[in-house]
Design goal:
Blueprint: E1 12-17, H1 25-40, E2 44-49, H2 55-66, H3 72-95, E3 101-104, E4 111-113, E5 122-125, H4 128-135, E6 139-143, E7 146-148, E8 154-156, H5 162-172, E9 178-182, E10 203-205, H6 206-214, H7 222-231, E11 235-239, E12 248-251, E13 264-280, H8 285-295, E14 303-305, E15 312-319, H9 321-338, E16 342-355, H10 365-375, E17 380-386, E18 389-395, H11 399-409
The structure holds aspartic acid and magnesium ion (MG).
Residues 18-19, 50, 160 line the site of magnesium ion.
Length: 424
C-alpha cells in the first residue's frame, strides 16, 4: 500500500479582536465584514474575541453589588459570559455575509487551564474540534479570556487575558503568527498621549515588549508576550479600524531598525512607595518583610535596600495604589518585630523606564538617562535595572516630563536606518 499523498493544508490565520473593536453591534459587523472578506479569499480563520466594550467591568461591578468576597468559581463563570456573548454575535454577523461560521466557548475550543480562578494558566489546548470545524469550511470564533479546569469549571486568565488566549491558540494551531487587532495601530516608542512625537515601531523584540508591558505600557497582556517568546511565535499588533496602517510585529530579531537603540519608554503612574526606616541589618530581614506581603497577595515591584550605616538600613519598595494601604498596614504591624523605627507611605510616585536589548552590550545608557533627567531638574528617588531596562522612580508630577525628556534624549522621534550608530 502506498502512503497517502501529502495534502497541502493552508496555515490557519489566528486573529484577536479586543473589547473596543467589538464594542457595539456596528463594530462587530465591521469586524465580521473584514473576516468574511478574508475567508471568501480562501483563508482559514480562527478569531478570538474579548467581551464587548466595558462588559467585563460591568460584570465585576455586578458581583461587587452582591458580595465583597465572591467565590472564584462563580466569579469566573460570571466574567466568562462576556466573551461568550461577543463570540456568538460575531459568528451570527459573519453568517450574514453567507460565510459559514461557528462560535465556541473556551471549553468547546479545548482550552484547558489549571484551577487558579481569576488568573488561571493555560495548560494545554486540544485542537480537534477547532480543526474539525475548519475542515468543514467554517470560520471559527472563540471566546477569549476563558478556559476550563480538568473538572469542567470555568476559569479566566486575568484581566486583558484574551491576548493570551489568542497567542496560545496560534501556537497550538501552528499559525505563522498571532494577529492582535485593537484600538491602537501598533506599539509606539512611548504612549502618544504622553509624548505626541512618539513613533510607531515597525517591529520590537519579545523581551523589549515584555519589559514595556510589565512597566506600564498597556498595549498587550505580558503573559501573551511571554508565550510568544516561549514558542517564538511572532505577534502582530495592528488596528482593527485602519487597514492602511501595517502595525507592529513583536518578534525575535528586530530587523528594520538598529537593535542597539533604546526602543521604547514606559511611564507607570500607578506607583506608591513604602519605606521601612532604620531596619537592623541582619540575615532574614528581607524575608521577614516580603514573606507576609507575598502571603497577602501583594505584588511588590522595585525593591531597594540602602547600604547600611551603623548596621541600620532603609528598605524601600513600590506597589500599585490599590495595594498600598494593605502593604503599609502589614509593614506597620511588623515594624516592632523587625525593630524598624518607622514605616512611611508615599502615594505620589511615578516610574519611568527606558527599554532596549542594546543595553546588554552597549554602554552609557544609564549615564545618558541620568544626565537628561538632571538637566531637566528632575529628582530621581529610586533606580532599578534589568539587563535591558533602566527604571527611575520620580515624583508623580515629574513623570510625564521625565518620559518626554528621555524620548528626546534618546532620539526616539527620529526614524533611523539599520547600520547607524547607537546614540552615545
Ligand atoms: N474581557 C476581559 C477584560 O476586560 C479580557 C480581555 O479583554 O482581554 O479584561
Ligand atoms: Mg484587552
Amino acid at each position: 500500500m502506498s502512503a497517502p499523498a501529502p495534502v497541502s493544508v493552508q496555515p490557519v490565520s489566528v486573529q484577536k479582536y479586543g473589547g473596543t473593536s467589538v464594542g457595539s453591534t456596528e463594530r462587530l459587523q465591521h469586524v465580521a465584514g473584514r473576516i468574511a472578506a478574508r475567508a471568501a479569499g480562501g483563508d482559514r480563520i480562527v478569531a478570538v474575541v474579548s467581551a464587548m466594550g466595558k462588559t467585563t467591568d460591568s460584570l465585576v461591578a455586578l458581583a461587587g453589588e452582591i458580595t465583597a468576597t465572591p467565590a472564584g468559581r462563580e466569579y469566573d463563570m460570571l466574567l466568562a459570559s462576556g466573551e461568550i456573548v461577543s463570540a456568538a454575535l460575531l459568528a451570527m454577523a459573519i453568517e450574514e455575509h453567507d460565510v459559514p461560521a461557528i462560535a465556541l466557548t473556551g471549553q468547546q475550543a479545548g482550552v484547558f487551564t489549571d484551577d487558579t480562578h481569576t488568573r488561571a494558566r493555560i495548560t494545554r489546548i486540544e485542537t480537534d474540534r477547532i480543526l474539525t470545524e475548519l475542515g468543514r469550511g467554517q470560520v471559527v470564533i472563540i471566546a477569549g479570556f476563558q478556559g476550563i479546569t480538568p473538572g469542567s469549571d470555568f476559569t479566566t486568565l486575568g484581566r486583558g487575558g484574551s491576548d493570551t488566549s489568542a497567542v496560545a491558540l496560534a501556537a497550538a494551531l501552528h499559525a505563522v503568527r498571532a494577529e492582535i487587532y485593537t484600538d491602537v495601530d501598533g506599539v509606539y516608542t512611548t504612549d502618544p498621549r504622553i509624548e505626541p512625537r512618539a513613533r510607531r515601531l515597525h517591529d520590537i523584540a519579545y523581551e523589549e515588549m515584555l519589559e514595556l508591558a510589565s512597566q506600564g505600557a498597556g498595549v498587550m497582556h505580558p503573559r501573551a508576550v511571554e508565550l510568544g517568546l516561549l514558542y517564538d511565535l511572532p505577534i502582530l499588533v495592528a488596528s482593527s479600524f485602519r487597514e492602511d496602517v501595517p502595525g507592529t510585529l513583536i518578534r525575535k530579531q528586530v530587523q528594520m531598525e538598529p537593535s542597539n537603540r533604546v526602543r521604547g519608554i514606559a511611564l507607570d503612574r500607578d506607583v506608591a512607595l513604602i519605606t521601612i526606616r532604620a531596619v537592623p541589618d541582619r540575615p532574614g530581614i528581607a524575608s521577614q518583610v516580603f514573606g507576609p506581603l507575598a502571603e497577602a497577595g501583594i505584588n511588590v515591584d522595585t525593591i531597594v535596600q540602602n547600604a547600611s550605616a551603623e548596621r541600620l538600613t532603609d528598605m524601600t519598595f513600590s506597589v500599585a495604589h490599590d495595594q498600598a494601604a494593605a502593604a503599609h498596614a502589614l509593614c506597620r504591624d511588623g515594624a516592632d518585630d523587625l525593630g524598624a523605627s518607622d514605616v512611611i507611605l508615599d502615594e505620589h510616585a511615578a516610574k519611568v523606564s527606558i527599554v532596549g536589548t542594546g543595553m546588554q552590550s552597549g554602554v552609557g545608557y544609564a549615564a545618558k538617562m541620568f544626565r537628561a533627567l538632571a538637566e531637566a531638574a528632575i529628582n530621581i528617588e529610586l533606580i532599578s535595572t534589568s539587563e535591558i531596562r533602566i527604571t527611575a522612580i520620580v515624583h508623580e508630577d515629574d513623570g510625564q516630563a521625565a518620559a518626554q525628556v528621555l524620548h528626546a534624549a534618546f532620539e526616539l522621534d527620529e526614524p533611523v536606518l539599520a547600520g547607524e550608530a547607537a546614540p552615545g
